[in-house]
Amino acid sequence: MKKSPLELKKGDSDRGLSKDAQANTNTNGNDSELEIKAKLDLEKEKAENKVLRKQIRQKELELEMLVELNKIQKEKELTNKNNNKYNISLLNSFNSESWKLTDEELYKQMYFDERNQVYMLPTPVRKHNHSIIELYDDYLITLPIADYESIEWIKNLYSDVNIKVICDGHDNRKGCDIKLDQKYDYNSLYKKTYFSMDYICKNIYNKTDKKIKFFAKMDFDVVVNKKYLYSVIKFISDNSHLRIYFGNSSPFRDREGVEMNGQFYAISGALLDEYCNCDIPEAQGNGEDLWFALALHQCITDKYPPEERKMLYIENSRDWLKHGGYSDKGVELKLGRHTFKDKEK
Hints:
Elements: H1 5-82, H2 103-109, E1 111-113, E2 118-121, E3 139-144, H3 151-157, E4 163-167, E5 178-179, H4 189-203, E6 214-218, E7 222-224, H5 226-238, E8 244-247, E9 249-251, E10 258-260, E11 264-268, H6 269-276, H7 288-303, E12 312-315, E13 321-323, E14 325-328, E15 331-334, H8 337-344
């Protein structure tokens, strides 16, 4: 029996609806799978993030622990430094004022000295309220000593000054900071100076990370005002990039340059750099102060053309540095060989 057109259409429509329904069912199935997959990925990501957060927190705890340990270590170092009078780096914080000259200030202060025929700078005498111990780490003073001179006296008089006592080879006293190989007398002090400088360059200058900005040699029988010494060290240290030679001057007889008397002479860090990096020949017969001056100038002459050999000189004030003794109210002091001369009379 044939179906009417209406029935055919209705059947076709039903079949069409069935196909759409089936398609919708398939789509819903796919959406469910995607949703499940997305949820799984999200859970996985959450789990990974949780692990990462845990690792980050662990690192944070480790960092906090390191910071705390570092704090404890610094406090310990601070305590040790405060308890060690020979290591006063922290005191440099009180010494923040700079005495470094600008180029303009340098050229204003420089003057040509007719007697020495060289350019000089004024003696750095300045009013201040500082203590010499504040500069302890910036400089070094060497003091060659004879076996008849008292190390205890020097160590007490200059207990706040960075001094290295240099002894002869036969001198076995405990207070010797540096001990040379030989015994020297007054007439061979130039050799003692050469080997002292050789030791300084090889065992102190080349083995320290901290730059020596001021280097000096002082005699046993010198008494120096520490306020004045602070001014000298501070000024030369803050201008240690310049080639500065300090002391009681005398002009060379046959060449340009100046010799500084052996009682007390000093050089800036720049000149110590030059000296320790020169090939200095072993000293021959000269006074120790003359030998050192000649060696220092020859070092610069050998390394640089004339236009680059510039050195600046500073005259020591005899008012603040006394040699051989000291007189004041209630004080009449004689030192070194001068005491033996009195006994011989």
